[in-house]
Amino acid sequence: MRVKRAKNYKRHMGVYTHSFGFRQPYQVIVDGNFVAVSQKMKTPVTESLPKVLQGPCRPMTTACVLTELRSLGHDFRPAYHEASNLEIRRCPHAKQPISATDCILSIIGEDNQHRYCVATQDTTLRSGLRRIAGTPLLYVSKSVLILEPPSTATEEKVQEMELQKTLPQKFEVSVLKKPEEAVEPPIVKKKPKAPNPLSVKKPKKLKGGEADNKKKEKRVETNTETHESTTKEEQTKVSSSPENSEVKDGSATNMEMTPQSIQTEKGSRKRLLTDDDIAEAQDDEVHVDNKATETAQERKKPKRKRHKKAKGAQDNTSTPSN
After folding, report:
1. What are the C-alpha distances in Å from 318 to residues 123, 309, 312, 315, 321?
2. pLDDT tens digits for range 151-173
């Protein structure tokens, strides 16, 4: 057997084993015509079948096939003897035998339940068996045993089986039909992002005079805040003292507070700050700052004058006195 043909046979039998469940040893039903032709070509059935199917085989016949060979006459006597040596498969019509083709078709049935291979030379029988999916067919051609490729019915059946594997099964369908609880995704609030530092304008640098004025304004504001806080504290102390609040016959007489009438715990008299005092303090601070700036400018100017005076003194020393 050629290598290419052997590979094809192996691929064909792989379709039957994987899709239809064929197992070794393969069961092969042999026809009377096939036995007679194999004898003429000198290819024994028990030796040729395992080579083609690439596995052990169990060739078998039926009682109807033996009766048909016996009725054909003296020419088919050697084929009858060889067929009688094979395994005989029981058929329901042993008492009333029928033709070999009808007997084999009845054994195969509609779907080849028992997974039989059929070896025959009858073309009508082979055409009828091609309509049944999953039935391997063998025949002899020019002293060579040939295994037919899978028929169209077998190929369609294989495609249906492969498609059913992809579909969900019954218990899976029952699970898929159950309504799923709608789970709402959590709402995530986006936080405001910081601005891009490259897109933000840089603060303008103030000049020397403007910066000094702003610093002075801040100082005045802080002084005023401290004066206001001290006045409020003193007023609360005076109002809470028992000397200044007298209650007689359910009527309260509150004394008017003056700056000269305030007395501390130690007994020393203190005067409250007024708005005029605050304004004077602010003027004093501005005056001090102006003096500081003037002194700084004066220090720079005399240096230049001194330098000039020193040069003038050198000139005077260099000139001779009369």
Report:
1. 151, 14, 10, 5, 9
2. 999 999 999 999 988 888 887 87
